[in-house]
Design a protein that fits this description.
Organism: Loigolactobacillus backii
Protein name: Transposase
Domain Transposase IS204/IS1001/IS1096/IS1165 helix-turn-helix: 100-146
InterPro entries: Transpos_ISL3, Transposase_DDE, Transposase_HTH, Transposase_Znf
Domain Transposase IS204/IS1001/IS1096/IS1165 zinc-finger: 49-92
Shape: elongated
Number of domains: 4
Number of helices: 16
């Protein structure tokens, strides 16, 4: 019966050492008046040779009490008061003690509680919450993470398709992030997004042959990335993310719409309310605009089709119509992934001194990188998803002051 109870207690804490024998369980209070669940146990086995001289002349020499921290079962603090058998050699007079795989040498935190800390850290909990659940201090949580989580020097193989992006890390710094466009696996996270540091990282850790195997790199509209991609990856095609293309064109459409609204003197007119309240209709793809069923449009307070509302605004302002048609052409080319149509739109575009002129000039400067968004299936969606996890981690932990601790937590949530 006693052996069965011992095995049950050891199984609860996932302890597999056959030399451990539980002698009892009690509840005590520490110096901070916190209640502690204590498991009393002994560790003893027959040691034949002295680890120092190798002679078979060992005798038992009392016990040594060790206070070990166990993993929590119900959110409280659990400890093991372990009596370790001590031995003395008659020949060399040196002493030694019984060892266990439950804990490392000269440590009090068992592997079980370290594992619990790492698992809870993957769930984006704060250090204080982890410490409260495990019955340890927040500084101990961070020490466990720093000792057991090591940032990799580099990945074994550089993937053929990469994604580049940045995110806000500590103290308003912008950090660089890179991932695999196909498997969504994180490749590297750097403390800043300076071109010099990005170039140094890839050139120092990957050979020319490895970097030459990269086939594509997907980026946003950041011009700095495009300036060194060919240097790092000579055979890679630069791809500008489709979302950022549509976003830039949509921003030009909104700017032109806002300028048009300011020119309207009658603030109670139907055209004014259409441009002011029904702005989302102008961002819809022409295919998705309803032109048959009349619906109640709030702001206008009338029943009409969506196409009718759009036509009223476009007929009243030809300059806004030109910007709208250009936006629809960009939207159609991106959705259909028609690089020829996109190229034709950029080539035949006629400037009319509106907000879209700046956007088209930006597209022309990016050249083939912009057209590659229609030729390749890759986007920055995977890395935006990774950045979303990082932002959630920052929000849950109320920010980080130490960037090294922040990057350790990032590596955990991306494993």
């Amino acid at each position: 019966m006693q052996m069965s109870l011992t095995n049950s207690i050891l199984c609860l804490f996932e302890i597999t050492d056959p030399n451990l024998i539980v002698t009892g369980i009690s509840k005590e209070r520490c110096s901070t008046n916190q209640r502690i669940h204590v498991v009393h146990a002994t560790l003893s086995y027959q040691l034949l040779k002295c680890p120092h001289c190798g002679h078979k002349s060992l005798i038992k020499n009392g016990t040594h009490m060790s206070h070990l921290r166990l993993g929590t079962l119900s959110g409280g603090r659990y400890e093991m008061h372990l009596k370790r058998q001590r031995y003395q050699c008659k020949d060399c007079s040196k002493t030694c003690g019984a060892k266990t795989k439950l804990v490392n040498r000269n440590e009090t935190f068992t592997h079980n509680i370290k594992h619990q800390v790492i698992v809870l850290a993957r769930d984006m909990l704060t250090s204080k919450e982890i410490a409260k659940l495990c019955g340890i201090s927040p500084s101990s949580v961070q020490r466990i993470l720093n000792a057991n989580i090591h940032l990799a020097y580099r990945v074994k193989h550089l993937p053929e398709n990469l994604c580049f992006d940045e995110f806000r890390s500590c103290n308003h710094w912008m950090s660089f992030n890179c991932c695999d466009a196909v498997s969504h696996r994180r490749i590297v996270t750097l403390k800043d997004r300076l071109s010099k540091d990005i170039i140094d990282y890839f050139e120092a850790r990957f050979s020319v042959q490895e970097r030459a195997q990269v086939q594509s790199v997907t980026i946003d509209m950041n011009a700095e990335y495009g300036s060194f991609i060919h240097r790092l990856f000579p055979n890679a095609a630069t791809i500008i993310d489709r979302f950022h293309i549509i976003q830039l064109a949509g921003r030009a459409l909104d700017n032109e719409r806002t300028q048009t609204i300011r020119t309207i003197q009658d603030k109670h007119s139907r055209i004014y309310h259409i441009l002011k309240s029904q702005w989302h209709l102008f961002h819809l793809d022409e295919i998705k605009v309803n032109d048959s069923k009349a619906v109640y449009l709030r702001g206008i307070n009338e029943y009409m089709t969506q196409q009718n509302a759009i036509d009223l605004a476009l007929d009243a302002f030809p300059r806004f119509r030109s910007v709208y048609q250009t936006y629809q052409g960009i939207l159609s080319a991106i959705h259909q992934k028609d690089a020829n149509a996109f190229q034709s739109l950029l080539t035949n575009y006629q400037p009319t001194s509106n907000q879209m002129d700046i956007t088209i000039n930006t597209f022309i400067k990016n050249g083939s990188a912009l057209l590659n968004s229609c030729r390749y299936p890759f986007s920055n969606g995977p890395i935006e998803g990774l950045n979303r996890k990082i932002k959630a981690l920052k929000r849950n932990c109320f920010g980080f002051r130490n960037i090294d601790n922040f990057f350790i937590r990032i590596s955990l949530i991306h494993e």
